[in-house]
Write a structure and sequence with these properties.
Layout (H helix, E strand, L loop, with lengths): L6 H11 L2 H20 L6 H10 L8 H10 L6 H5 L5 H11 L4 H8 L9 H13 L8 H7 L5 H18 L6 H11 L5
Helix pairs in contact: 1-3, 2-3, 2-8, 3-7, 6-7, 7-8, 8-10, 10-11
Length: 194
């Protein structure tokens, strides 16, 4: 059972509702999702993947107050870090908005967990999490490093490398990885598959 989503219509909608920079990021994440799925021979619905990449940041430019208010009103289950850093709420808020519009559960789950990662995010979530980090417009990676990362033998191995880099980055900023991120990393390091 696969829902047909009009990605052209989604692009038009996003172009009107988010900044140009965020729109370009979303387009790039969408394409990177598809590229990763092909590279690692994932059997995922390409149309859903594109939509997932497009819509993952639809609430990213909301204010902290808007995000908190929406999350409370809809009684969303939140991680401690998401309450501490409300910008992270854009993930659960977008997932809820997409759920209300009838998007498939695996897409909503992927969007829900794209910021911190989670053992619950599924294959589509794993692809989105990685695409969000690796898309070519991201300035924290140069082409050589991106290519080196993409030599990882599996999406799980790639995810562990990305999480290690993310951990180093957070450490430099005096922050630590979230509980949900650390649980995901340990799960993958122990040979877990999503």
């Amino acid at each position: 059972m696969s829902m047909t989503i009009d990605c052209t219509a989604l692009e038009a909608e996003l172009k009107e509702t988010i900044s140009t920079k965020r729109f370009m990021h979303s387009l790039s994440v969408s394409q990177t999702c598809v590229d990763l799925a092909h590279r690692y021979r994932e059997q995922l619905d390409e149309n859903l993947l594109r939509a997932c990449g497009l819509m993952h940041d639809m609430a990213r430019e909301w204010t902290d107050e808007q995000l908190l208010s929406f999350a409370r009103k809809h009684m969303l289950h939140l991680e401690a870090e998401e309450l501490e850093y409300p910008v992270l709420l854009h993930a659960p808020v977008a997932a809820q908005l997409l759920k209300e519009r009838g998007f498939p559960p695996e897409l909503c789950l992927a969007v829900r967990h794209h910021s911190l990662g989670s053992k619950e995010m599924g294959r589509m979530g794993l692809v989105l999490y990685l695409a969000d980090y690796l898309e070519p417009n991201r300035s924290h990676l140069d082409d050589q490093l991106r290519e080196r990362l993409l030599k990882a033998p599996s999406l799980e191995a790639l995810c562990v490398q990305v999480m290690e880099m993310e951990g180093e980055y957070l450490k430099k900023k005096g922050k630590k990885s979230s509980e949900v991120s650390m649980a995901l990393k340990q799960f993958l390091q122990a040979g877990g598959r999503l």
